[in-house]
Amino acid sequence: MNTDTFALYPCDLCTSQDLAEIPAAPHYMDGRPLHVCNACGFVQAAYRRTPEALQRMWAEEIYRANDARISDKTYTARIPAVVARQTFAVEFLAEHLDIKGKSICEIGAGEGQFLEMLRVPRFDMDTFAIEPSKENCAILNSLQIKNFAGTMEDYSAQSNGEQFDIASLIWTLENCQSASGVLAATHDIVKPGGHLVIATGNRILMPFKKPLQYYLGSNVDVHPYHFSANALTSLMHQAGFKVTAHNRFIDSDYLVLIGKRVENIDDLPMPTDNSAEIIQFFERWHNETQAHYADW
Ligand SMILES: [Zn+2]
Question: What pTM was computed for the model?
Answer without folding.
Answer: 0.93
